[in-house]
Amino acid sequence: MMEHLRGLGRRSCDVLEALGRSGLFLGQSMLGIPSREGWSLWLSQMHFVGVLSLAIVLVSGLFIGMVLALQGYTILVDFGAEQALGQMVALSLLRELSPVVAALLFAGRAGSALTAEIGLMKATEQLTSMEMIGVDPLRRVVAPRLWAGFVALPLLTVGFSVVGIYGGYLVGVEWLGVFEGSYWSNMQASVGFIEDIGNGLVKSLVFALVVTWIAVFQGYDLVPTSEGISRATTRTVVYSSLAVLGLDFVLTALMFGGFS
Amino acid sequence: MRRSKTMELGVGLFMLAGILGLLFLGLRVSGLTFGVPEDTFRLEANFANIGSLKPRARVTMAGVTVGRVAAIELDREWYDARVVLELNAELEDQLPRDTTASILTAGLLGEQYIGLSVGGDPEMLGNGDTIRDTQSAIVLEELIQQFVSNMVND
Predict the structure, then answer these.
(1) I need a surface site. Which of A132, B7, B65, B154 has the fewest CB within 10 A?
(2) What's this model's pTM, rounded to 2 decimal places?
(3) Closest by Cβ to B1, choosing from A41, A155, A187
């Protein structure tokens, strides 16, 4: 009995400690003054997490927009409301699907790679060597990756929405024969710039912070063995997916739930 | 980490594409316009019941959008709803004094908007005037109630 109780206490302490460590870690990495060299480090990370993720994000966006239009059409046509297709595709993409799906893809494509990279640096003691020669690894290794993720994911989300709306247009208008004018005009009548596009961007900023934070922290904090790296990479994807989906509910309730 | 020209170009294009995408969303998807705000003038109208009319709803005339609802508030004196309309300045002093404002519904389930229909009075409505002749929104429950009580009376 006492043994179990002690185990529970130990585990809670571990969780709290990890939370505190990761908070300090985030603060120290993001508050460091970027040097001129930091800019070029940021650029190469931006290339890796942003530009190279573009293909998977855009292709998924296209297919999600297309499938939304197809599914939406078959339901709306029963009510004679297929003119509202553009509105449905745009609102569901902008408010919900783009931020969430882009963040999930980002966690799988870029987050896991960040964890593995930083984890291997730790396992091969490159991080310790940096400290030995007086280079702060938080600023040199972690900060550019955090900032790159923070900037890249919102841009990817915007791309996802644009391509998705065009995918919906391809299926709805070109294939299923919804009138083109009503596709765009219903969309414009119902989508608000601040309340829909702006809130979607706020969501994706939050997700960007959470996903890259989890990824780099898992890499920085892992047990420096090959097993530790594989565990940490898995944990990155699992934790960031759960965090994105859970936070999405909270943010949606705050933004669109009407409690204010 | 080496930084090559193509990498810089790639990141630059990526950022540019993101900003252009946002611009596309703003202009094409949400119909945002960057013009100077159009000249408008204000009219007021009192309705006994506005149904679910919302601020920013359309004001139309013969189906053409000519303005929008600027504000809705409760008139403390008469306990009805005072709706402030913002109409295109071209229509100032062009609408007869007995113009009717009615709250209509777009389609069976659509949003509510205000429809204006002109009368024949020689005097015209200017900025800040009140439209006297108004028709409230049709509330489905009231209609059903009327229908049922008529049935009982018959």
Answers:
(1) B154
(2) 0.76
(3) A41
Whether residue B27 lies within 8 A of chain A, CB to CB, comes out as: no
Contact criterion met (CB below 8 Å) for A64 and A94: no
Cβ–Cβ < 8 Å for A102, A231 = no
- What Rg do the C-alpha atoms of chain B give, in angstroms? 24
The amino acid at B40? T
User: Residue B14: closest CA among chain A residues belongs to which residue?
Assistant: A51
**Chain B CA closest to residue A163:** B21
Tell me what ipTM this predicted complex has. Answer: 0.75
Q: How far is A77 from chain B (nearest CA, A)?
A: 15
Cβ atoms of B93 and B62 within 8 Å: the answer is no
Q: Is B16 on the interface with A (CB under 8 A)?
A: no
Q: What is the extent of the structural domain holding A11?
A: 2-256
**Nearest partner of A102 among A62, A146, A147, judged by Cα:** A62
SS3 assignment for A169-221: HHHHHHHCCCCHHHHHHHHHHHCCHHHHHHHHHHHHHHHHHHHHHHHHHHHHC
Dist. CA A54–CA B42, nearest whole Å: 49
**With bands split at pLDDT 50, 70 and 90, how would you rate the model's confidence at B57?**
confident
Q: Residue range A227-251: average pLDDT?
A: 94
What angle is formed at CA A216 by the lines to CA A212 and CA A219, rounded to 5 degrees? 145
Task: From chain A, pick out residues whose CB is under 8 angstroms from the CB of B3.
Answer: 40, 43-44
Burial grade of A2 (CB within 10 A; 0-12, 13-18, 19 or more)? exposed
Rounded CA-CA distance A6/A24 in Å is: 27
Q: Helix %, strand %, coil % for chain A, to 5?
A: 90, 0, 10
